[in-house]
DNA sequence: ATTAGCACTCAACGACAATGAGTGCTAACG
DNA sequence: CGTTAGCACTCATTGTCGTTGAGTGCTAAT
């Protein structure tokens, strides 16, 4: 579709624009050296490239900037993933050498480090706790009518919630209840807890415990309901975008930051990403607020089971080579790191 | 110190400036009606007020704006806390009518609502968990060498942490350990846990459990260490500031948002607030990033014991009357709401 | 096919005048 | 004597108008 020379020129323009954030003209390309043609020749090619939709001109007497289509071609065919900064990677690994203990911490840290290394904003989606299974359930009564319900998953994730106890329930009944629940539901996937509660626990409960219906009701409220167990979203470097020249306008900043505050939206955005690395450029993103941003996501997995997603949000003019390389490595590292929890 | 007329004029200027964000001139004051003098007279007074340090002039041919000292006088002597928007308050209360179950949720919600009502940024400091005492301790083994340690306080707050188990410890020893710890430390204030661990639990443990030293060591890591149990900070309306005209400069925005990301700094800032309502105007704040902001904090307490602090961060030109009134009511409501947990 | 040459376009910048909101001062007024 | 009308003055803001220079597109020469 494109001649070699056109590819070279497109590549040069995108590279230059990524560095400078300013429209690049024929002369500066010519001077770079790697395209050995005169400005005039390059101009002709640029004109063609514009006609083909790979370039745009902010106004007649300015240089060219890549269009969405141009970036897309660059990402798909031109970007070379040079040995992504070795120093930074070892840096990343050393951070995690001291074994972190909480899965949440690991994810948050990874997000922070990625944001620091790239100077863009990072968004990480923790492992879906719905894939986990119940390890242990516990009720800690605080006083006569309230208790804390605690759920521990096989991965060490803990959720807790306050529940009000059925009136007049006895301590021993409470203990029996917890015992039965653990006996029957340990090992059950989190998603199926509520349904299994009725099929498995119900009758057993009715045999040993008074008012078993209200107890059952209480238990249902105590267990994390499928929907509300939203995947947690971790953000890193939210303010990094403010250093990018494309965000010198406060209104733009506000719409972006407001989007970043909407956890459910982010969650949906990332969880819809396919496995492996995906690049969504400009208007390829659904949300208008980031129509001049790009989002690169990497989903990591163990044995084909997806564990989580980590993404970088930057201006369309972002350093694709660096970010893709980094995400590739980091996502693989994450999978390794997390494998501890998933044996 | 000031004549009645000067007070009236100062009040009018601050009010006007708070509304308009623009230097206010003698003519506009005169037209307001509540100061029945000609522009010329007002000009003379304004000149005096400037000499006294209550007003400032951006440049010779502009109106006046209040100085820090001017705001201070306004806050201390002039502001009238008119029945702070009844609708908004009932609004606030109805939000909490449906009893929230988690103390964290309550605080976060309060922060969000305050931010919405004021259109400024709110910062809330949760109740210090250090005042709480141990209700229940639990170890849930995940596999042969790791377990989740769970600590429940008397207020229903749950902390959890992963610990690696001493090698080759038996299940029954683990159970004994947990049992002993609960027997000995239930009711002990969180701050004293670690110290009591050695004095109270140590020898008991040595009597019943093998390798009791490594077990003790593990327990110490499992309990929340005093320092790391930082008070949690809840933010609301971080992006609200971006709608304020004083933040049309992205650099300013960045320094502010960066400050808001530093949880420990915020925590220190709020926790140093005295009981009751405090107003810190402009440079009265230590941090340079908010030298043109004001922070109003309210600390709420039950029976003289401070439970937490809630604050509003806005431009110096913020609506003091509204915010102070609101904070006063909200902080009292918070105390009531939380009293449930602290009986 | 490539490139030198040239006319043309247009954002960015600076100079300059016009505008007008606001002041300070002086003199008049009740 | 306190108040106010009048007036000259200041200065940020706005708009106009060349100038500059980076960059293009086209044509003709190589």
TrEMBL record, chains A, B:
Limits of the Heat-inducible transcription repressor HrcA C-terminal domain: 104-324
Limits of the Winged helix-turn-helix transcription repressor HrcA DNA-binding domain: 1-72
InterPro entries assigned: GAF-like_dom_sf, HrcA, HrcA_C, WH-like_DNA-bd_sf, WH_DNA-bd_sf, WHTH_HrcA_DNA-bd, WHTH_transcript_rep_HrcA_IDD
Pfam families per UniProt: HrcA, WHD_HrcA
GO biological process assignments: negative regulation of DNA-templated transcription
Protein family according to the UniProt entry: Belongs to the HrcA family.
UniProt xrefs under HAMAP family: HrcA
Matches recorded under NCBIfam families: hrcA
Function recorded in the entry: Negative regulator of class I heat shock genes (grpE-dnaK-dnaJ and groELS operons). Prevents heat-shock induction of these operons.
Protein name: Heat-inducible transcription repressor HrcA
Organism name: Paenibacillus curdlanolyticus YK9
Upper lineage: Bacteria, Bacillati, Bacillota, Bacilli, Bacillales
Gene that this sequence comes from: hrcA
């Amino acid at each position: 579709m494109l001649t070699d020379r056109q590819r070279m020129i497109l590549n040069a323009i995108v590279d230059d624009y990524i560095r400078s954030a300013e429209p690049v003209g024929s002369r500066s390309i010519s001077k770079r050296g790697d395209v050995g043609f005169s400005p005039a020749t390059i101009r002709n090619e640029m004109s063609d490239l514009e006609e083909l939709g790979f370039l745009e001109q902010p106004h007649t007497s300015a240089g060219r900037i890549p269009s969405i289509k141009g970036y897309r071609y660059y990402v798909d065919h031109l970007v070379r993933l040079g040995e992504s900064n070795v120093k930074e990677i070892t840096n990343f690994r050393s951070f995690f050498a001291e074994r972190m203990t909480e899965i949440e911490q690991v994810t948050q840290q990874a997000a922070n480090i990625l944001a620091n290394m790239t100077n863009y904003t990072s968004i990480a989606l923790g492992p879906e706790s719905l894939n986990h299974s119940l390890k242990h359930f516990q009720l800690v009564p605080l006083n006569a009518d309230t208790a804390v319900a605690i759920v521990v998953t096989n991965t060490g994730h803990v959720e807790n919630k306050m529940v009000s106890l059925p009136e007049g329930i006895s301590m021993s009944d409470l203990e029996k209840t917890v015992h039965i629940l653990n006996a029957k539901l340990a090992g059950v996937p989190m998603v199926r807890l509520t349904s299994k509660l009725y099929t498995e626990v119900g009758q057993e409960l009715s045999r040993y415990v008074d008012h078993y219906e209200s107890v059952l009701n209480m238990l249902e409220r105590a267990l994390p309901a499928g929907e509300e167990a939203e995947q947690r979203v971790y953000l890193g470097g939210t303010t990094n975008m403010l250093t990018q020249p494309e965000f010198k306008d406060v209104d733009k900043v506000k719409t972006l930051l407001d989007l970043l505050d909407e956890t459910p939206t982010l969650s949906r955005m990332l969880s819809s990403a396919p496995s492996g690395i995906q690049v969504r450029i400009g208007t390829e993103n659904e949300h208008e607020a980031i129509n001049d941003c790009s989002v690169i996501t990497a989903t990591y997995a163990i044995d084909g089971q997806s564990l989580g997603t980590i993404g970088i949000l930057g201006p369309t003019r972002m350093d694709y080579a660096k970010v893709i390389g980094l995400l590739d490595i980091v996502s693989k590292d994450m999978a390794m790191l997390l494998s501890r929890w998933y044996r």
